[in-house]
């Protein structure tokens, strides 16, 4: 169905969503030592052919706290409005639009929605990065976020632009999680399936681990690694992913980035971690309902 990379150019940290009968990817714009300011949106009707909608949001515009380091957006829809939660300067803000392809208007003009100074309930993080929006079957909406030893989660208010006071919690792991960043979750067959990225994204060994929980707050029982490098295929540093269900077929797909495979001028050292490409592969489950390791497509 697809051939990787799925999109031309240097992009990373894809957030894949299904809105109004079409698929959307919101990624980090790569290159330049990660100091970009803009986000693009890509749209597809079949997961194979992707159209660039252009720049949908600039973090440096109409903001008193965000200059650059625009990373890892995540999108949401509620009551016909679309929300983009984004990183800038290692803090998290939110913007809003009337359609999924934007343009988005900044709601976090005066200050960020989340910063390390806004942690509560004993939550500890190294960096305030990598938001992920999750809508629970209960009807509640959450943001997952953070870099460090453990991620965090907080409930969103009905306005989608503020957090419910006192709702922030640290997510605990049972087992060796090796958590670094980019946590996400989805609910399937009675379990919360958590996935997260491990290591430095500039390392060939950057990878994705997986665990399950009975609650969206954890604790998460670690299962193992589901996405990792395949040097024999030229696939290095796959990670910072998101997962979407095809509502028509019930199939699941994982979008992720890896080192660009067409950059001979950047083959050495950490430079590869600044030039990444977007990939998409099918997500499979075993007879116990657990995710099996991803078969990466070259």
Report on the structure:
The protein has no helices and 20 strands. With 298 residues, it is mostly beta strands. It has a single domain, classed as Tachylectin-2, Chain A. It has a 5-stranded mixed beta sheet, with no helix packed on it. It has a 4-stranded antiparallel beta sheet with strand order 1-2-3-4, with no helix packed on it.
User: Quick one: biggest sheet?
Assistant: 5 strands, mixed
CATH topology: Tachylectin-2, Chain A
- Under the CATH scheme, the architecture is 5 Propeller
Given this structure, which CATH class is correct?
Mainly Beta
Which descriptor suits the 3D outline?
A: globular
Q: What is the N-to-C order of secondary-structure elements (H for helix, E for strand)?
A: EEEEEEEEEEEEEEEEEEEE
Uncertain runs: none
User: What share of residues is helical?
Assistant: under 10%
**CATH superfamily, please?**
Glycosyl hydrolase domain, family 43
Radius of gyration: 18 Å
Distance between the termini: 13 Å
> How many strands?
20
Strand arrangement, largest sheet? 13-17-16-15-14
Helix count, DSSP H or I runs of 4 or more residues: 0
Based on secondary structure, the structural category is mainly beta
Query: Approximately how much beta-strand content do the residues carry?
Result: 35-45%
> Overall pLDDT, averaged?
96
GO molecular function, one term: hydrolase activity, hydrolyzing O-glycosyl compounds
Site (Important for catalytic activity, responsible for pKa modulation of the active site Glu and correct orientation of both the proton donor and substrate): 130
Family: Belongs to the glycosyl hydrolase 43 family.
Organism: Candidatus Limivivens merdigallinarum
């Amino acid at each position: 169905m697809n051939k990787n990379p799925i999109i031309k150019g240097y992009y990373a940290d894809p957030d894949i969503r299904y809105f109004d009968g079409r698929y959307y990817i919101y990624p980090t714009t790569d290159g330049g030592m990660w100091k970009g300011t803009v986000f693009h949106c890509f749209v597809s009707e079949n997961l194979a052919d992707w159209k660039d909608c252009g720049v949908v949001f600039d973090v440096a515009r109409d903001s008193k706290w965000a200059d650059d380091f625009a990373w890892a957006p995540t999108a949401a829809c509620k009551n016909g409005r679309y929300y983009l939660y984004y990183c800038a300067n290692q803090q998290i803000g939110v913007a809003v639009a009337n359609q999924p392809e934007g343009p988005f208007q900044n709601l976090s003009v005066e200050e960020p929605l989340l910063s390390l100074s806004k942690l509560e309930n004993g939550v500890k993080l190294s960096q305030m990065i990598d938001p992920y929006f999750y809508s629970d079957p209960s009807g509640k909406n959450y943001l997952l976020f953070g870099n460090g030893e453990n991620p965090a989660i907080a409930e969103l208010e009905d306005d989608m632009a503020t957090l419910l006071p006192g709702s922030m919690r640290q997510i605990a792991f049972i087992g060796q999680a090796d958590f670094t960043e980019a946590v996400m979750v989805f609910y399937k067959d009675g379990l919360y399936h958590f996935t997260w990225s491990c290591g430095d994204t500039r390392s060939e060994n950057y990878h994705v681990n997986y665990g399950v929980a009975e609650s969206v707050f954890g604790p998460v029982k670690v299962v193992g690694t589901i996405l990792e490098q395949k040097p024999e295929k030229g696939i290095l540093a796959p990670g910072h992913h998101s997962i979407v269900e095809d509502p028509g077929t019930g199939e699941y797909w994982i979008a992720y980035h890896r080192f660009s495979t067409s950059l001979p001028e950047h083959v050495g050292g950490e430079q590869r971690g600044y030039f990444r490409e977007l990939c998409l592969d099918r997500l499979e489950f075993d007879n116990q309902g657990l995710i099996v390791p991803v078969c990466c497509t070259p």
